[in-house]
Amino acid sequence: MNAHDEVAAAILRAAAHPRAELRLLGRLNDPLVGNGGNRRDVFFFVPDLHLLSARARARYGYGFNHEPGALLARVLGELAGLAESWDDSGRHKLVAIQLGDFFDLWRELGPVNPISSIADDAHGALRDLLYRGVHRGRPCLKATMLLGNHDTQSGVPLPEIPFQLKAFNRSADERPFLFATHGDAFDVLENVVPDPIQEFVVYFLGTLHAASKYPVGSWGGAAAWVNRPPSELGQAITQPDHALATEGAVAAAPGAALPDRLCEIVEPDHGEHRFADFYRAIGQAALAYPSASALRVAVCGHTHHAALLLCEPPAGRPLVLLDAGAWIERCTYTTDDGEERTEPSAQLGVIHGNDVRLYQISFPAP
Amino acid sequence: MRTTPPALLVAAALAAAAAAGCAGGPVVAYVASPHDRYDHNRTRRIVYAPAPNVGAGPVGPLKVRKQDYAPQPGRPFNGTLVVDADAPPPPAPLDGLPDARLVPVFAGLVLPLDPSPPQGCAPPDCLSDRDDLVDYLATGPLAQAGVEPAAAAGNVDEARQRYAPVLDLLGRRDALAGGPERLEARLRGLDVTWADRVVDGRYPAAAFASVAAFRYGDFWFVLYRLAGQPAYTRLVAAPADGHHAFLKKKQP
Q1: What ipTM is given for this predicted complex?
Q2: A262-313 residue pLDDT tens
Q3: What is the pLDDT of residue B132?
Q4: With 0-12 CB in 10 A as exposed, 13-18 as middle and 19+ as buried, what is A360?
Q5: Taking CA atoms, what residue in A is nearest to B145?
Q6: What are the strands, taking DSSP E only, across chain B?
Q7: DSSP assigned state of B241
Q8: Are the C-beta atoms of A150 and A101 separated by less than 8 Å?
Q9: Are residues B152 and A227, on separate chains, in Cβ contact within 8 Å?
Q10: Which residues in A lie closer than 8 A to residue B77 (C-beta atoms)?
Q11: How much of chain A, in percent, has pLDDT values that exceed 90?
């Protein structure tokens, strides 16, 4: 089995249900991904979770999918075991990245409850498996945790979480192919600077040496313009259902024949998923900074709308945008035999070599 | 902190703050927990050689990982602590936890910064002290990456450019010579905040001839000079203000 097959097998083992499936929502298996020389790293992306307590969940009618059966915890547990076996054998290294909005602290705490009211065991299994278990002698993916706009209260995240704002793959020549961020940056920048694209280039992708006018410490200052006030959070769920573009979602069992290209072909000015903004920003950064010259894949969350977008203009640089979706709300997609399915979103992204995949765990309702 | 002994510095800083009508109090640099602070090249291998009567631990070069600082037993620092080898062994604890865990306490990165990777080990497995420090700075002040590099990198090129003036100073023996005043003079013109006091639980402040700490970007850079040494010889970097200032306005 190759690395992708091993990951798929681990996910299906975790699902542990005869009718559970791993549906391929997107795939690009192509050298333009630019990661052909790296056979060691297996990138695994966990999108927005918006973890809430039962109380907050009942209040807002909103929350993390498949919580009763602990499906994601079982998946992460299997993957932690796989990662450990890979570490022992030296065959691969699992690089897990949670793309932000891990907790939904806005809804959970509101403006009044202190962050210390988050109990140590609140979603403890997921916290252990992603980042905390390493300190507690438990299986742990040691995930890179990206900061999302729902991860702080009054600017303060849960202190135990090792947040980063952005992440790149490690590359020997310091020219990464992969860039990951939560995806709310443009929302914020549009409200605070006249040229959000240039600001993103400088701040997220550039070297800051000539333009450090926008220090990290003040980055989130305008989020108040973007985020809704707590009193409106009950109505802030603007899209409980996401009609995904995927048609022909095949079951991705290990060894199954999969299409090399199952992705949405877009133009550089494509408006969904902030694609045009990512495309312009990464293109500008690639011209200005050697360290951004090889970027081909951007990974984000934030929209809760899973998608794999490919832009390959004849005279321009290609870009793949993997929006890894979410584990909240519902999604609709069409399978390879023409069945239209609507089910709780439970999406994951995986990249190995030049093979980018976007999965939906299709789990039968109880 | 710019001069030693530290007590004098604190007094001077408090007096200056009072004279200026400053209500904020002295500027304090906290040398944070092992997970937050950067005090050694994380890619360098260390040698662990347990005493023969401690038990069979791995002997030889190894890297320190996050779990080595966890309270639960785990390799490689899982030997039994024997204070008196001739005494009868203590009763097994009912809760299953060991009475003590021995973990490394690093004295800080050696200065001036070494730009070469460790002998016999090349990138990306091993990085020079300078490059590993850059890697740590690139992951940002919240990453808790002091013990082990994050699996995914931050913007290394950005960090290298952003912290270039400080990295340059830390790499030059002549620039590290002398006292804190000379250090301050060499960093004049940069957006640097000097600490009036350094809180470092690892050592008593009086153990050093001079401890100087300045904030640049998102981090404190704490430099240590031992008595009899002509220059600062150790560095610890630590997040400045931790979680509170980093994204203080990111709120609904």
Answers
A1: 0.84
A2: 999 999 999 999 999 999 999 999 998 888 999 999 999 999 999 999 999 9
A3: 97
A4: buried
A5: A162
A6: 28-30, 46-48, 60-62, 109-110, 193-194, 197-199, 210-216, 219-225, 234-239
A7: S
A8: yes
A9: no
A10: none
A11: 66
